Fold these 4 entries.
Entry 1:
Amino acid sequence: MAANPSEKKETQFYYPSEAFVQNAAISGMNAYHALCRAAAEDYEGFWAELAQENVLWHKPFTRVLNETNPPFYKWFEDGELNVSWNCLDKNLVNGNAEKDAIIFEADDGTVTKVTYRELHRRVCKLANGLKSLGVRKGDRVVIYMAMSIEAVVAMQACARIGAIHSVVFGGFSAPSLGERIENAGAVAVITADMQIRGGRRLPLKAIVDDALAMSESHTVKNVIVYQRTDEEIPFDKGRDHWMHELMQSQSEICQPEWVNAEHPLFILYTSGSTGNPKGAQHSSGGYLLWAIMTMRWTFDIKPTDIFWCTADIGWITGHTYNAYGPLAVGATIVLFEGVPTYPHAGRFWEMIEKHKVSIFYTAPTAVRSLIKASSENRQFAPEQYDLSSLRLLGSVGEPINPEAWLWFYKHIGKERCPIVDTFWQTETGGHVIAPMPGATPQVPGSCTLPLPGLSVSVVDETGQELPWGQGGILVINRPWPSMIRTVWGNDERYKTHYWPEELGGKLYQAGDGAIRDPETGYFTITGRIDDVLNVSGHALGTMEVESVLAAHPMVAEAAVVGKPDDLTGESICAFVILKDELPQGDQAKSIASDLRKWVSKEISPIARPKEIRFGENLPKTRSGKIMRRLLRVIARGEEITQDISTLENPAILDQLRNSL
Ligand code: PRX
């Protein structure tokens, strides 16, 4: 399967090199198909073998899959383990103790490295510190930190004592953070005094203070603060503790808390199609297994690799491919505090050169913004850097358009590195559809085929599988180990949202549309089928943004839709009806700017609408339902060809169309 340039053009396939194939964990398509066959022939046997060989069990499991109470499936349920023990202690006895676990590069370029031994030491000390504050197995701990070694230490320390962490992305506002703290019923928050990104400081601890002041249930008894800077911050002596002081007197030994395989490792909030975010609850055993397998299969990880996943630990990608997966396979990771464009647009390439990164995993939005930046200023183009250490590239979070794929392939991978376009979700815990880099011929714009063990289909509205070539709903046919277990505190929401009755109740509905290539069966994701937007790879619920806009004192009503965007994949367009009369000119501009700031403050800058259009009303049916599909057409600047006979107020369409 060596590269064959003449074939490339005809077939649009991109093949891994012979050398890559030979050394790969899954070497060639026959090996891939053999694994898929093994799973199809004996599903439980397939998973049992992987779990026995790849996870260290304190008490081995005897039961593989429990399907007696669908969709509340259990995996390896009588097995006991500890995830932090699998990630750290294992590496102290297998020759990795002095190997770098994390290479941390701060915003200002300062580099700090920690070995597995040192990471283990810090995790044990913080774990003991948390215990000394009364944090126990099953307690929830919210982590609100920026990218740092300490953030990984915090996550691992929770895992060590069986506390359930819930990391909230550092860009979320106080109300969003408060809502998550409340929903999780957290007993402690781990944060930092400041976050530094792109030369700017954000007062994380002050935001935690605000979030806690809004809290009604007062479950949080302790706040642990990592000191990132020397800035003075407000400190409540009865509640707040500096992380370094808490750790100082603690023992370097912390026996792991053995937990059941189904014990929740973490909750991670994700946007849903209704207003309030849902806490995806993940297990310990099944989640860890898939984090390990995907490191081996999708990333083909080798002991000498330097693995850099640019995702923040506040997202699922940062959980599985920074905090857990790479450590569980003894890899060295690069962790970056800053942003790709600071102090210049060559920062990513400079870091790849400096740290000799061999596997680079990032989001299409980042690729697109760097294409633009490097064409504007050749000084920071990738050609100015030595990227020869790279051997594999990955993409995640949103569809990668063929143009960006080809640029990534040519300019970063130098036509030498396979690209793994990984489709998955917060709820799936790890990759679902992705090329195996030493096997699957890649096609730009397609995430290709499901990983071995995952049975994925495209079905119609009744759950019937559709023939290849016909677009429909993406589903996963069988429970798999790393799947979401429930929505924290809301079993009903989990059941109805992910296992809809309309599809028969036994298919996991991803919420995405997909189509399979008629000849190869390759999957292409066609986008969300619900009201979830994907801005720069971040899922955002339209309702979430709408309810915040509607809560602004000037706003009577608001509707939000997605619109294709060259840079961010999708951008937010908001249609807003004010309580006062329709604003014009500069007044409209100034109100729009206020509303953007408001959304930033209430949710996060990610949720800020790029476009705001004012009208006297929204297009509604006679029964009062907002016709979003018409708003989507208007936002895209397309002609309305749909049936508008059920519309109560057709004249409003022209007004909204001309409102920019
Ligand atoms: O719509 C799909 C899109 O991102 C959604 C999941 O978002 P989130 O839970 O935030 O997790 C993102 C990181 C895994 C999916 O439902 N998505 C993710 N990866 C891809 C993708 N769409 C197309 N291609 C991908 N590779």
Note: The chain has 20 helices and 30 strands.
Entry 2:
Amino acid sequence: MSNDGTIHARGIRKSFGYKTVLQNIDLDIACGEVCCIIGPSGSGKSTLLRCINGLETVDSGVLKVNGEDFGYYETDTAYHALSPKKVAAQRTRVGMVFQQFNLFPNMTAQENVMSGPVLVKGTHKKQAAERAQELLASVGLGAFGDRYPAQLSGGQQQRVAIARSLAMDPEIMLFDEPTSALDPEKVGEVLAVMQDLAKKGMTMVVVTHEMGFAREVSDTLLFMDEGVIVERGAPREVLANPKERRTQAFLKQVL
Ligand code: ADP
Ligand code: MG
């Protein structure tokens, strides 16, 4: 059976210097599953996403993404880094969208969406442009391909960023507080694109403060605090009946 679109972690640990940022993280995400992560600032949410897409390597533990050891592999005696080429290939299969949209300011929306396929995969420009146009249409921006980022609203820029990630045909999409930098009236249009993606069966891990989205769209909700997953479960259950004291305290503040 194919493990494409899955994430499997056992006992992940990650430190920066003496500070342990992730400890004992176990995670199983099935293909097509949507997992939302909530938790206070500094709890390790971004670091966990960055490990899952290879921007950081874990210190120890098992991490398999799309069924493959990610970033490194383990033998009886040691961890060995995978070759940079292998890591780069693995990373193309995991898309990531950040709070700050990180578009290339000197490229149009269409050029932004084309850039990955053309530069990384060597896709022919004409073909990449056609695909970019389709992807822009799918996020409601079919008429905006020739605009530069500065000519787009925050919500539009974030939708271009999502289209740009999708252009690499990832099996997994990671979102790190994708609506936190947006004006409130622009949040809905980005969440709608994400909900659409979820419906199409994309495996997604979403760090968010949007509890409505977590409740309606996610299959699993995780609450993290101080580098550990404190509580997890069906989103309605966790939000309505949090079992752990720390989850209760956090939800009291945000709901
Ligand atoms: P969150 O996304 O939940 O706010 P982060 O994963 O960004 O949390 O950070 C978790 C902790 O790790 C914080 O204490 C942060 O200061 C620390 N941290 C994150 N990245 C680095 C880094 N590159 N170097 C040192 N410390 C870091
Ligand atoms: Mg963060």
Note: Residues 184-199 form the longest helix (16 residues).
Entry 3:
Amino acid sequence: QASTVMRVRVAPIAVSHVLVLAEDHTHARRVEEIRRDFVANVSHELKTPVGGISLLAEAVLDARDDPEAVERFAQRIMVESSRLSRLVQEIVDLSRLQVADTLHEPELVDVGVVAAEAVDRVRVAAEARRIDLTLVSEQGLRVFGDAELLATAVANLVTNAVNYSGSGTHVGIGARRVGDSVEVSVTDQGEGIPAAEQERIFERFYRVDAARSRATGGTGLGLAIVKHVCANHGGRVSVWSQEGRGSTFTMTLPAAADRPRAVADEPGPT
Ligand code: ADP
């Protein structure tokens, strides 16, 4: 009743203000919902490795007279704790990216160099699975941004390409200029992603196959990080994929102007 009376009084003078206020309110509620979901997800995701580590520690104590068993359990504790520390790191990275929405101190970044650095980070894991990585990059591809974040994003895509492909396959990484954009794409010959899931994989903690993701040491945050890094650079990430054939992920970033206006370009005092 009260709200009807108010709307009648307010509407003739400021309909748009009323609408904007209502939208702000919905937005704030949505942000709060997202925050609550994130906290719930995080505690759920942390409980798995923490629970695993404490069970394994008990197993070590029970098996104290059997050195082989002790070693086996200790190895698994190491695997679980490294997954846990990666998870914590990625949660922190993602929270920062979400809060910031923009970049701290953007600089001119050479995307070819960033892509090479990202490929290097994944090379050992790829070799272990006999997957060969090929990088083809144009020269002088520049964007304005954060080199470390961009390298993390590309490395996440290459890591996934390796993790979700069979041994002996090929992963291609390409960087090129397309119009006003710089594109970095990662193509694999892996298992592919069902069409119905292709949008959801960019959500935090969403996995097509949770057991498979866990087996590869995945945290479920890799693609959410890629999405936020692209958004913070004014770009986006997209996926093309066919089940059983493979996937291509493409990051599209606004190219920096060919010749940035530097201090030296300013007409100096004569
Ligand atoms: P994860 O740590 O589980 O790999 P991501 O956020 O990086 O988390 O990816 C989310 C899910 O998307 C993965 O669990 C997997 O199901 C799917 N996925 C990501 N990249 C690929 C790929 N190259 N090929 C097939 N599936 C993929």
Note: Residues 263 and 269 are 13 Å apart (CA to CA).
Entry 4:
Amino acid sequence: MAYETIIVEVEDHVALITLNRPDALNALNDQLLSELVKALEDAQNNDKVRCIVITGSEKAFAAGADIKMMSEKSFVDVFAGDLFGPEAEGIMRIRKPIIAAVSGYALGGGCELAMMCDFIICSDTAKFGQPEINLGVIAGMGGSQRLTRFIGKSKSMDMNLTGRFMDAEEAERSGLVSRVVPAKKLMEETMTAAQKIAEKSMIAVMAVKEAVNRSYEVPLREGLLFERRVFQSLFATEDQKEGMSAFAEKREAQFRDK
Ligand code: HXC
């Protein structure tokens, strides 16, 4: 399918989705978000795809939801139309791993989109923020919820109340991102990580995603039980037999997602 606001490339089992509204610093409008969800669903349904990467431009991952699109909307418009609700749900339904490769601004909905991915690798130029407070609103896709769980209440309050930006070094120190790399190496490092994931058993990969995400939803005891049962159930797969035999035989495992 031809997209106008994103570019999708599938290579070596990785779907690379590049947000592409350069004139608006990749601001998220209805079209971009629905194209993004469609591309993610296609990647989910494409057997060749084993990992997904979402990225933006060097200057901006995404500078937020499109303020010009939102400015004339009324409460009734956004409430009755559930602005950004179905798209956020659509992204959360994806079961394959998604890495955010962030360079430049990841603000508002852009920071929230990055946090909806499974982990974030950013360049040393990255700037994260929830500046919605400057517009007289608050975050609407996880900036007050996910960010608080990721970096703690004090820092989240600071970000959401002052609207200040956090640089890459602080983002790594705070646990928002998994790695910071030099800007020139961002895509190389991210694609290497994606390739590494693509080599694993897809069943185990999807199980990891579900188990780690579950840790944000349920009490520890429930989460531990869920993890143990999933761990045990993976012994029903051929990939578990292959992975453990390959170790014993000192060779690379050949996983078949079975
Ligand atoms: C619409 C945007 C935009 C946005 C930038 N642009 N951010 N358009 N929505 N969120 C547009 C600008 O209007 C401008 O277009 C062009 O992109 C370049 O931006 P500049 O401001 O000229 O660039 P610069 O001076 O380098 O400043 C970069 C910036 C600034 C610091 C990122 O653009 C900025 O503060 N943007 C808004 C950030 C923000 O408030 N995000 C939160 C949005 S609310 P023109 O045509 O004028 O040249 C949100 C709510 C989420 O995300 C809730 C649920 C999803």
Note: Residues 201-249 form a domain with the Lyase 2-enoyl-coa Hydratase; Chain  A, domain 2 fold (CATH 1.10.12.10).
